[in-house]
């Protein structure tokens, strides 16, 4: 109830301050609120708005608040803080957490405005002359900054960007424009520009954005921030994997929530049933989950080893074991806490009905993936190690099996997955396969902005 009252107060305060009483009825109707007459609005603009908000639920109020924040910009800073507190993941596409992480790294580097003069740099992004002052001695933010950063430098970067410019509360468009100016060639060039791009991309990718080159000026690259295309819609639930022996039989017990129950061979497989973080499923996440299953509070090296051995025991072939072993060998210590878990033998599709019950309808032929990586920004990467069973019946080539395989690949890609195939023969030659595996994952991590030390 407290959060609802805060939203009502925040919304009504903005409309009271920003709108004339004779315009207020039309404004309220535009935002989906009940109409009224000008006389009622003349009596009290705040009460007029509050009467129309009190019957609304929290979801409506949050969505309305977001619209008002977008429409009223810097005048809605207090409402921004309220919404961020109540719904911290839903206000902006680039979250407050990501913004803080980026700014913390920029503060550590210093010299955010690079080669340009500070005021010139800030004017590229903010209309300083029309922004309010935080110091009564000055008419606007330009006077504030000139005094406290240049003439008498008693503000640090935190004071400037967080207290004066409200960097965590500005719209996505403003924050994106700010970052684009930080890496603009008039601000920094060459290795320094590249370094800052890597730094910013490391955080942006978690919210589905990336800095990419879109143009050039006098031979110097110009970069823009784009939304990353791809990713799988929906939330991963009940990842069933690493089956040893007979495959599990699964039924859906709640089709609305996609809840499942394993009715046969449950002990043969593992089921990861925790939420997948925005950072993807990391090895440390999997180890903590495994420790919980074993009722162990401390996730020490022995717990990691037992999990690794349990996963390895589910692998069917030597090429699969080679890929799995070398992935962990090369990258676990390199990536440390950012190391994604390579999940083996993930069950992809279940058909609880007989052919007769399905009335001969065709279902997705592939029953499981050889390996799955759950990366940041809902990026999911499938790795398949192909033996002859993927394209032949015994020693006889099977066009039917091959067509089923490529059809299943298309279906996965259309649903946002990346699919990469290794020929089993590629992973047989010990002299060449190790470097090939290392090169593949290094390039994959670059593609997804996962930093390798």
Summary of the model, kept short:
Helix content is 45%, strand content 15%. With 453 residues, the protein is an alpha+beta fold.
Percent of residues in helices comes to 40-55%
The mean pLDDT is 83
Radius of gyration: 28 Å
3D shape: globular
Strand order, sheet with most strands: 7-8-9-12
Major sheet, described briefly?
A: 4 strands, mixed
Low-confidence stretches: 349-355, 361-365
Order of helices and strands: HHHHHHHHHHHHEEEEEEHHHEEEEEHEH
Separation of the first and last Cα atoms: 48 Å
**How many helices in DSSP terms?**
17
SS-based class:
alpha+beta
Tell me about this structure.
The protein has 453 residues and is an alpha+beta fold. The protein has 17 helices and twelve strands. The protein folds into three domains: 2-86; 96-227; 239-447, no CATH class. The protein is 45% helix and 15% strand. The strands form five sheets. Strands 7-8-9-12 form a four-stranded mixed β-sheet, sandwiched between helices. Strands 1-2 form a two-stranded antiparallel sheet. Strands 3-6 form a two-stranded antiparallel sheet. A hairpin with a 2-residue loop joins strand 10 (392-393) and strand 11 (396-397). Helix 1 runs antiparallel to helix 4 (45-53), helix 1 runs parallel beside helix 5 (58-72) and helix 1 (2-18) runs antiparallel to helix 6 (77-86). The two termini are 48 Å apart. Mean pLDDT is 83; it is low at 349-355 and 361-365.
């Amino acid at each position: 109830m407290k959060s609802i009252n805060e939203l009502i107060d925040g919304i009504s305060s903005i409309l009271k301050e920003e709108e004339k009483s004779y315009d207020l009825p039309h404004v309220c109707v535009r935002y989906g609120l009940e109409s009224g007459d000008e006389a009622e609005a003349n009596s009290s603009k705040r009460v007029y708005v509050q009467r129309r908000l009190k019957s609304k639920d929290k979801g409506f109020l949050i969505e309305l608040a977001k619209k008002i924040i977008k429409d009223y910009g810097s005048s809605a800073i207090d409402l921004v803080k309220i919404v961020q507190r109540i719904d911290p993941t839903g206000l902006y596409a680039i979250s407050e957490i990501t913004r803080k992480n980026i700014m913390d790294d920029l503060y550590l580097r210093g010299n955010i405005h690079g080669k340009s003069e500070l005021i010139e740099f800030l004017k590229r992004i903010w209309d300083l002359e029309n922004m309010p002052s935080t110091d009564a001695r000055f008419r606007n933010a330009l006077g504030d900054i000139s005094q406290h950063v240049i003439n008498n430098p008693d503000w640090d970067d935190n004071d400037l960007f967080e207290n004066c410019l409200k960097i965590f509360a500005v719209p996505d468009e403003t924050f994106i424009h700010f970052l684009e100016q930080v890496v603009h060639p008039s601000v920094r060039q060459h290795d320094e520009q590249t370094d800052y791009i890597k730094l910013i991309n490391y955080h942006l990718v978690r919210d589905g954005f990336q800095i990419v080159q879109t143009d050039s000026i006098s031979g110097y690259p110009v970069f823009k921030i784009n939304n990353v295309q791809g990713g799988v819609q929906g939330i991963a639930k009940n990842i069933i994997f690493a089956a040893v022996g007979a495959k599990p039989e699964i039924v859906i017990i709640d089709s609305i929530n996609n809840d499942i129950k394993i009715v046969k061979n449950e002990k043969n497989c593992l089921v990861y049933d925790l939420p997948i973080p925005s950072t993807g499923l990391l090895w440390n996440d999997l180890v903590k989950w495994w420790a919980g299953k074993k009722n162990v509070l401390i996730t020490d090296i022995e717990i990691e080893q037992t999990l690794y051995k349990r996963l390895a025991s589910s692998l069917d072939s030597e090429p699969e074991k080679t890929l799995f072993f070398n992935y962990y060998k090369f990258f676990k210590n390199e990536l440390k806490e950012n190391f994604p878990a390579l999940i083996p033998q993930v069950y992809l599709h279940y058909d609880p009905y007989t052919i007769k019950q399905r009335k001969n309808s065709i279902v997705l032929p592939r029953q499981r993936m050889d390996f799955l990586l759950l990366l940041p920004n809902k990026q999911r990467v499938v790795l398949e190690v192909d033996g002859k069973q993927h394209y032949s019946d015994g020693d006889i080539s099977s066009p039917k099996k091959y067509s089923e395989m490529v059809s299943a690949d298309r279906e996965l890609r259309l649903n946002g997955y990346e699919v990469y195939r290794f020929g089993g023969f590629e992973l047989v030659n010990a002299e060449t396969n190790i470097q090939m595996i290392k090169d593949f994952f290094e390039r994959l991590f670059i593609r997804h902005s996962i930093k390798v030390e």
